[in-house]
Each structure stands twice: as structure tokens, then as C-alpha cells.
Amino acid sequence: MSRTNAADILCIGAQRSMTSWLHHVMAAHPGAWAFPAFDPLTSTAKEAHFWDWNHRRGADWYRVLMRPLDDRLKSLDFTPDYAFLTESQIAECKALNPDAKVIYILRDPLARAVSAIRMHTVWATNHAAADAHRITFDKKFLDRCSNARLWDHGAYPRNVSRWRAHYPDLILVNYEELRADPVGGSLRLMDQCGLTTETLTADQRSAIEQRAGRRIWETPAYPLDPDCVHFLHGVTLLARTACAEQLGLTFSEGDAILEAAR
Question: Cα dihedral sign for 188, 194, 200, 206?
Fold first, then answer.
């Protein structure tokens, strides 16, 4: 049986916006398939990283990696770094995955940036407990901002524009709405991506609902000094405004962060 797409369902981010959670839930659908983890070539069974880490291995490598054991299944590639692929890279993605469904979960830019800094702090402090570390405004903090690629990950309208040029039916998801209704939101996304939910058995639906109730890859809630929060607010303010004006998406998560920093 021939396959039209290498990957049938792509999630391109945003990083720290429930992409790991969504992959965990979608992989429970009997019609979905997650590739085997090949550390360090891939990031678990979720992120193939073809266009950044593995592009030199060639398109055939990607096709083999993404091909399910049963061609009737839909393969998943949830790599948040794909959000800021170049025009030519997205064109190559379209050639490899012409009929793929592409999901982009957008989170309040400030809240997403705070979560990203906490994630990079986890790596830098060897998983220090939340009550054992405070993030201060210093060179280490600024280095983590650079390493986290805050500007690239937060450039939502620009990223959406490039992807929509090749995938006009790009599925935009508001993180806050998905978090408020994880079961309903994940089931709707499955249907949008061709993973029918009407025919699920009671046991299959229960397995999906159980996964939807879990939290995946939660970082310690390291406290940030107000100077750090205000810096991140300045970095992300234009992106937040652009989301409202260009994408019609408004967020509230960052408001609570700013209020706590006052």
C-alpha cells in the first residue's frame, strides 16, 4: 500500500504549549501511530526533528522513520521547532507531506516564555527543586533566553503566515481553551485530523480520557524575580498584540504573571 504522506499529522508547536500532552493523548487513538524512539536522533517517540537535527540523513530516512507498520494508521510528528522553518523548508515539508494536517497550539507569549525559561533552568540546575532555586536577572538568565530561542518560538503571526502559504487549513489552537477542556479539545482535534472518534469503543475512549487527565513534562515552578518577568513581558508584548490583531487570538495567562510580579 502506497502512502501519500511521510507524516500524516504534524504538530509544529508552540514549545511549552501542551504539545507533549497532545501527542500522548493522540497516540492512544487506535488509528494513530508514533514512531519508535531513536535517541539521540529523535526526541523520544514524539519529535522526529527531521528539518533540524536529521535533514542530512535524507528524505528516505524520514519516510522510513515515519512509516507505520500498518499503512492504514496515521503517523505523528510533533516537533515544536518546526514552527520557524524557512519558506523553502516548509515547501519541502509540503512535498513530503502534501495532505498532512498541521496543528499549531498558541499560548500566551509571556506565559510560554516563562515556562521555557523554567525548562532551561531545569536542565542547567540538574533538576533542582522549585523551593531550592530562584531565577534572577543576570547573565545566566539572559543566556537561557537566547538558548530558548524566545524570539523565534514567540513569533506566532510570522510563523503562521509562512505555514499557511503551504497549508491553508493550518489548525490553530488556543492553549487556554485546550487546557480548559482537555477531553473535548483533544477529541475535536482528532476528528479534524481524520482520527474518527465516533467509532471508538468505550474502552478506547476511556483510555484517551485517562491520558487527557494527565500532565506531561511539567517543570518546577521556579520563582522569577520581577525584573525577569518585566524583561520577558517586553520581549513578548509585540507578539501578544499581533496575535490579537492578526490572528484574532487573545490570552489571559500572562496577566496573572504580571500581576504577581507587581
Answer: negative
Phi/psi of residue 169, nearest 5 degrees: -95, 25
Q: Would you say how long the chain is, in residues? A: 262
Q: What is the pLDDT of residues 198-208, one digit of tens each?
A: 999 999 999 99
Structural domains of the chain, ranges and CATH numbers in brackets = 9-261 (3.40.50.300)
Q: What confidence tens digit (pLDDT) does each residue in 3-40 have? A: 999 999 999 999 999 999 999 999 999 999 999 999 99
Provide DSSP, 94-126: HHHSTT-EEEEEE--HHHHHHHHHHHHHHHHTT
Residue with cell 493550518: 170
Residue 116's alpha-carbon distances to 61, 194, 219, 227, in angstroms, are 30, 31, 9, 17
The β-bridge partners of 33 are 75
Given a contact cutoff of 8 angstroms between Cβ atoms, the answer to whether 7 and 76 are in contact is: yes
Q: How many CA atoms lie within 13 A of 48 on its CB side?
A: 28
